[in-house]
Amino acid sequence: MASASTSAAVPASKMPSGVAPLRAGQGRSFLLRRLHSLSGIFPIGAFLIEHFFSNAFSTNGVNAYNENVRFLSGLPFVFFLELFFIWLPIAYHSFYGFYIWYRGESNLGEYPWTGNWLYTSQRWTGAIAFFYMGWHVWSMRFNGVHILTNTAAAFWKVQNELRHPWAVAFYFVGIIAASWHFAYGLWLFAAKWGIFVGDKARRRFGLVCILIAAVFITVGTASMVAFLTTPPAPPPATENAWLH
Questions:
Q1: What residue spans of the chain are helical by DSSP H?
Q2: How many Å from the N-terminal Cα to the C-terminal Cα in the chain?
Q3: Does residue 132 register a pLDDT over 60?
Q4: SS3 12
Q5: CATH number of 25-237
Q6: What phi and psi values does residue 171 have, to the nearest 5 degrees?
Q7: Backbone angles phi, psi at 129, to 5 degrees
Q8: Which of 193, 205, 211, 203 is nearest to 22 (CA)?
Q9: Is residue 12 within 8 Å of residue 156, measured between CB atoms?
């Protein structure tokens, strides 16, 4: 009886009101997570900004887009620039992100709070963006005409790919996923690195990040619409046989 009354007198532990979305980790895990967070902003985030901006040249017509592709492909040491500032950072950020997802627990069914929903959306948009980039690179670089060695075919090749309705839908989903993943990644970066420490400051920056996502989605959609609505670009002469 004494044991029962004693246990009844002890107040029940109160469940926290939410699940913290930030986990710093310890030791090597701390360093790897910080590097993962940083790589999502630089160089991957910087590349994403450049890529959206470059694709926006489609709104200025065929020649403007092809000329921009020619300029980018003609940069000195372009292979090493892509290797060390695009492909290796993306590989690390992606695979370590999948590892974080594998080790994490979102518990959406039991704890449907904002932190968990945001955590889960970040994981899923990252996965969608990863497979979207893989398909995009394969179709643009390794399938058919190579636009880096035949830049005059760049606009035509994108148009040719977007003639399939499923490709248009997949591109649109990929634009949304990449935009949200980057925007919320900015918020996580600012929180983890102590740039915004107060709740009020974090909420305000969260609104800024939502606006950033909206801008990216708008620019990406406008670029895609330009490819869809511009009169078909002539295919390169060397590709006529391949088309048929």
A1: 2-9, 27-41, 44-55, 62-73, 78-82, 88-103, 114-137, 154-161, 165-192, 199-229, 240-243
A2: 88
A3: yes
A4: coil
A5: 1.20.1300.10
A6: -65, -40
A7: -65, -35
A8: 193
A9: no
Does 201 score more than 60 pLDDT?
A: yes
Q: What is the pLDDT of residues 91-117, one digit of tens each?
A: 999 999 999 888 875 555 555 567 778
- Measured at the CA of 95, the angle between CA 89 and CA 101, to 5 degrees, comes to 130
Handedness of CA 214, 215, 216, 219 (dihedral sign): positive
What is the DSSP secondary structure assignment for residue 146, as one 8-state letter? -
DSSP 120: H
Give the pLDDT band of residue 27 (cuts 50, 70, 90): low
Burial class (CB in 10 A: 0-12, 13-18, 19+), 103: exposed
**So where are the chain's domains?**
25-237
Residue the block writes with tokens 């940083």: 38
How many beta carbons lie within 10 A of that of residue 18, not counting itself?
A: 11
DSSP state of 39: H
